[in-house]
Design a protein that fits this description.
The complex is a heterotrimer of chains A (about 425), B (about 290) and C (about 190). Chain A is an all-alpha fold and about 425 residues long. Chain A is built from 16 helices and 4 strands. In chain A, strands 1-2 form a two-stranded antiparallel sheet. A two-stranded antiparallel sheet of chain A has the order 3-4. Chain B has a domain of about 170 residues: Cytochrome c-like domain (Cytochrome Bc1 Complex, Chain D, domain 2, Orthogonal Bundle), CATH 1.10.760.10. In chain B, the strands form 3 sheets. Chain B has a two-stranded antiparallel ribbon with strand order 1-2. Chain B has a two-stranded antiparallel ribbon with strand order 3-4. In chain B, helix 3 crosses helix 9 and helix 7 runs antiparallel to helix 9. In chain C, about 30% of the residues lie in helices and about 20% in strands. Chain C has 5 helices and 9 strands; from the N terminus they run αααβββααββββββ. In chain C, strand 2 and strand 3 form a beta hairpin. Chain C is elongated. The chains are: A mainly alpha (about 425), B mainly alpha (about 290), C alpha+beta (about 190). Chains in contact: A-B, A-C, B-C.
């Protein structure tokens, strides 16, 4: 679907006409990310991160396929083969640092993309499916990142694998069998390493497939925008190309500057020293922490310390999974007719002064040494996290009085004398 | 319906975590956490700088050559360097012939081509640095159950990196007189005792290190370039050498980084100008209300 | 970029149709696109060169072989750069046979002297790689088929090599390759 005024692809010569008849791939691209896709003209830079996430996925697949040419997934030699890549393979150090830091930058842009969606309520009708697919992508990327971190077979790799599969051991009755089944043994070893490698290779391509569905679903209603008011007329939109290709090109430049600065000058800053020690099943590192992008969820896991009806461990595992799975229900938990946080005074306050500090505190506590203070902080933040999404959001969406919305996107950009609409969610113009 | 279930679920999780919070806080308030000596008297690595530090840093090959001598004469008695090959020494500024000669000074396990028996033979450039012990069990048995770690990646495998290695080598102290932040160890913890076979070193996480002070006297090794081999000098040189063994490609990385960043900056500026002029057609000055 | 200038004006727009302005705008877009293209090409370099032999592979490039135990008429197999290496000590009769072969009858004309070292004319060192498609010829071990010319015989496609490792019959285009080697002592050769 697209807007009536969307430009149509016109093959210019015999060859493109022939291709268009046999396989209209250029037409598809033209309509997806070309001049044939009308996009609200008022998108801000927060709308850059979808394209950047796609770029990061491509980057990880390219560097990952190359690393797989040199890496050996065997517990005896995995660590040594990683060092072989770093020392002997031509540009191997670059490939590995690009892949390791690429994972971090992938999560940076994914998180910013998600925060954009949360603040502007991009998950609301008619875009629920885009959001649901996005959560699926996030889960896939998390699983891929976790398994990738195991591959170098350092101390953190090994103990991370042990601790995370140990989570499944919390499930009553069948937990331990599941853990043994996941690992193919009683502790992480060759069987686990090989299956993690296999899945680590597979899942990015599954992710790429879901990304295509995500973009497909996006093109049904079209992009949302910072006002949350739907597109009404042609003057509300500009063609994706050249306007947003140019803007995304600039955004990509900024992304690459930050990324290369890390890869070339601080390649181990986001890593952990213990992972340069080969896996040793007989000695646990002093402080097992996952990579930074898992810290908030790790803090939620560690926050539950008391056997309240269920064992504390089970609470932690349930809460950690619930903290992400609850995102699947967001479109139905938040019933406010207004999308954008700009026009929702109460929502805005809870977002900036509740949710953001809460996530930051969780992130800090998840990465810090366990101490009474960090545990207490993560407990309060975990409580707020669940209250925010499951209690506060449904309630404020009923009691909040939204601010007046601009009549249209064009009016929001240009200013208008037309009467603003109070909290009305206009349907898209077709 | 979703919202009612959601609110109930949210309240259940909140209740569970707040009960944990309450129980923890109560127990923290009623029981005093015991401060440990390692928490209190552990010292952060010294502030020492190396020529290869920072985005413009480069290896000082003279220093690395001196560090190699320290590793060979001292550290290699107990510590392996298994990810480094003799051919890598060419990075330190040695010629091919010199590398061959340096390698030949080491004995590595080989196979007698006639009998197939294991024999020791002179190393070749393609060989890796040999381990001083045939296996971990032998290493542990020879060292009071503490296996001397491989040093190839040591400066990357410890928080604090090369300054940590330097601090550890120069930081052995007498616990009887040791004080930190103006507080004497034995005054705060009169029962503090260094276990038999261990050595007091405040830079080590638990203060007691299984390694005896390895560098003890000035002139313990002889430097060919005439530098005086003080303990501080040897420690610094070997720390630099171990930075190199941990990442021999560091120079390449930094030297590639600058042109890459410069080019991306240039391309980004062009992308910005291009974006600006493309949008100039539709980005009007905002009309005042 | 052409459509840029024909862009239907949306809202209030600033129209800049002065000719110089158009040229400058095009120039910036082309420069930005070219910079992206150059960057993408530059990235290809490490992506491609990572597949070339790594440093440890390049370093393993010499092999020492003790040849003292090879009796005349015998041959041994060793490994050089992960490929088979044939070392054969020729009998006097074989040397005579090789030298008596008319050079004109050879597909790849080389004398035995071209293929052995001064003072060690009886020692023939060749790669054990058939020059046709890379199979390992037979003829090293006792009892193996040595082909019609008493040298080496490649069973894959029937190439026959003579006692000097020269191609005599079959599809192979050239003689078995003689690698670079020298004697480091009376009994040991270093290949590579």
């Amino acid at each position: 679907m697209s807007f009536a005024w969307a430009r149509q692809y016109e093959p210019k010569n015999g060859f493109t006409k022939w291709v268009d008849e046999k396989l209209p791939l250029p037409r598809l691209v033209y309509n997806a990310v070309g001049a044939g896709y009308p996009v609200p003209r008022n998108l801000n830079y927060m709308w850059n991160f979808g394209v950047l996430a796609g770029f990061a996925l491509l980057l990880q697949i390219v560097t990952g396929v190359i690393l797989a040419m040199h890496y050996a997934a065997n517990a005896e030699v995995a660590f040594a083969s990683t060092e072989h890549i770093m020392r002997d393979v031509n540009w191997g150090w670059l490939m590995r640092y690009a892949h390791a830091n690429g994972a971090s930058f992938f999560f940076v842009v994914i998180y910013l993309h998600i925060f954009r969606g949360l603040f502007y309520s991009s998950y609301k009708a008619p875009r629920e499916m885009i959001w649901l697919l996005g959560v699926v992508i996030f889960l896939l990327v998390m699983a891929t990142a976790f398994m990738g971190y195991v591959l170098p077979w350092g101390q953190m790799s090994f103990w991370g694998a042990k601790v995370i599969t140990g989570l499944f051991g919390a499930i009553p009755l069948v937990g331990e069998s599941i853990q043994v089944w996941l690992l193919g043994g009683f502790a992480p070893d060759n069987a686990a390493l090989n299956r993690f490698f296999s899945l680590h290779f597979l899942l990015p391509f599954v992710t790429a497939g879901v990304v295509i569905l995500h973009i497909w679903a996006l093109h049904i209603p079209g992009s949302s925008n910072p006002t949350g008011v739907e597109v009404k007329s042609e003057s509300d939109t500009v063609p994706f190309h050249p306007y947003y290709t140019a803007k995304d090109g600039f955004g990509l430049g900024i992304f690459l500057l930050a990324y290369f600065a890390m890869v070339f000058f601080l390649p181990n800053f986001l890593g952990h020293a213990d992972n340069y020690i080969e896996a040793n099943p007989l000695a646990t590192p002093a402080n097992i922490v996952p990579e930074w992008y898992f810290w908030p969820f790790y803090a939620i896991l560690r926050a539950f310390t008391f056997d309240f009806i269920l064992p504390a461990k089970l609470w932690g595992v349930l809460a950690m999974f619930a903290s992400i799975l609850l995102w699947f229900f967001l479109p139905w938990l938040d019933k406010s007719p207004v999308r954008s946080g700009h026009y929702r005074p109460l929502f805005r306050k809870f977002f900036w002064f509740g949710l953001i500090p809460c996530i930051l505190v969780l992130g800090y506590c998840g990465g810090a040494h366990l101490s009474p203070i960090t545990i207490a902080l993560s407990q309060i933040a975990t409580a707020y996290y669940f209250l925010h999404f499951l209690v506060i959001l449904p309630i404020i969406s009923s009691v909040e009085k939204p601010e007046p919305l601009p009549y249209s996107i064009t009016d929001a950009v240009l200013g208008s004398d037309k009467k603003p609409v109070l909290g009305e969610n206009t349907t898209p113009a077709v | 319906m979703v919202r009612i279930i959601g609110i109930l679920t949210g309240l259940v999780f909140t209740l569970a975590v707040l009960i944990s919070f309450g129980v923890d806080t109560y127990s923290n308030l009623t029981t005093e956490a015991e401060e440990t000596a390692e928490h209190h008297f552990h010292a952060e690595p010294l502030d020492v700088s190396f020529p290869h530090d920072g985005p413009f840093g480069k290896w000082d090959t003279a220093q690395l050559q001196r560090g190699y001598v320290v590793y060979k004469e001292v550290c290699s008695a107990c510590h392996s360097l298994k990810y480094v090959a003799f051919r890598d020494l060419a990075d330190l500024g040695y010629t091919e012939a010199e590398v061959q000669a340096l390698a030949a000074e080491w004995q590595v396990p080989g196979i007698d081509p006639r009998t197939g028996e294991t024999v020791m033979r002179a190393a070749e450039p393609t060989d890796y640095f040999p381990s001083p012990y045939p296996n971990d069990v032998a290493a542990a048995a020879a060292n009071n159950n503490a296996i001397p770690p491989d040093l190839s990646l040591m400066t990357k495998a410890r928080h604090g990196g090369a300054p940590y290695v330097y601090s550890l080598l120069t930081g052995y102290e007498d616990p009887a007189t040791y004080s930190h932040d103006g507080e004497r160890l034995l005054e705060a913890y009169p029962d503090f005792e260094v276990p038999t076979g261990l050595y007091f070193n405040p830079y080590f996480p638990n203060l007691n290190l299984a390694m005896a002070p390895p560098l003890t006297t000035t002139g313990q090794v002889t430097y060919e370039d005439g530098t005086e081999a003080t303990i501080a000098q040897m420690s610094k040189d070997v720390s630099a050498f171990l930075s190199w063994t941990a990442e021999p490609t560091m120079d390449d990385r930094k030297q590639t980084g600058w042109p890459v960043l410069g080019f991306v900056l240039f391309a980004t500026i062009l992308a910005y100008l291009s974006k600006k002029q493309i949008w100039a057609a539709v980005k009007p000055a905002k009309r005042k209300h | 970029m052409a459509e840029l200038r024909t862009e239907p004006t949306v809202g209030t727009t600033q129209e800049t149709d002065a000719k110089d302005g158009v040229r400058r705008r095009d120039f910036i877009d082309i420069a930005a696109l070219s910079a992206g293209g150059v960057g993408a090409l530059a990235v290809l370099y490490p992506l491609i060169s990572q597949m070339a032999p790594s440093e440890d592979v390049l370093a393993e490039s010499t092999t020492d072989v003790d040849v003292s135990a090879i009796e005349p008429g015998q041959a041994i197999k060793d490994v050089f750069r992960k490929q088979p290496l044939f070392i054969r000590r020729l009998t006097d009769a074989e040397i005579a046979e090789a030298n008596s072969t008319p050079i004109g009858a050879l597909r790849d004309p080389e004398t035995l002297d071209d293929r052995t070292l001064e003072g060690h004319r009886d020692l023939l060192v060749t790669m054990g790689v058939c020059t046709h498609l890379g199979c390992v010829p037979l003829g090293v071990a006792e009892g193996e088929n040595r082909g019609d010319y008493n040298g080496y015989f490649c069973p894959c496609h029937g190439s026959h090599y003579d006692v000097a490792g020269r191609i005599r019959k079959g599809p192979a285009p050239t003689n078995l390759l003689v690698p670079e080697y020298n004697f480091t002592s009376d009994t040991v050769i270093r290949v590579g």
